[in-house]
Design brief:
Order of helices and strands: EHEH
Structural class: alpha+beta
Low-confidence stretches: none
Protein name: Acyl-CoA synthetase (AMP-forming)/AMP-acid ligase II
CATH superfamily: ANL, C-terminal domain
CATH architecture: 2-Layer Sandwich
Domain AMP-binding enzyme C-terminal: 2-49
GO molecular function: ligase activity
Radius of gyration: 13 Å
Pfam family, one: AMP-binding_C
Helix content: 25-40%
Keywords: Ligase
Strand content: 15-25%
Number of strands: 2
Shape: globular
Number of helices: 2
Length: 61
């Protein structure tokens, strides 16, 4: 299931519906985001790669 992990800027009032509507306007229907998770920061390795395993843990799986 497509899921977005979003880091909000300070003072932002962005919500799940805003993110899903934005993505829906850009991608094919089967690629639409179904869940949005707001995180404090995207975990990265020393080389700068996104640590997907840690994101999955933060996403409730």
């Amino acid at each position: 299931m497509p899921r977005a992990f979003v880091v909000r800027r300070p003072g932002s009032e962005l919500d799940e519906d805003d993110v899903m509507a934005y993505v829906a306007g850009l991608v094919a229907p089967y690629k639409k985001v179904r869940q949005v998770r707001f995180v404090d920061a995207v975990p990265r390795s020393a080389s700068g790669k996104i640590l997907r395993r840690e994101l999955r843990g933060a996403g409730g799986e």
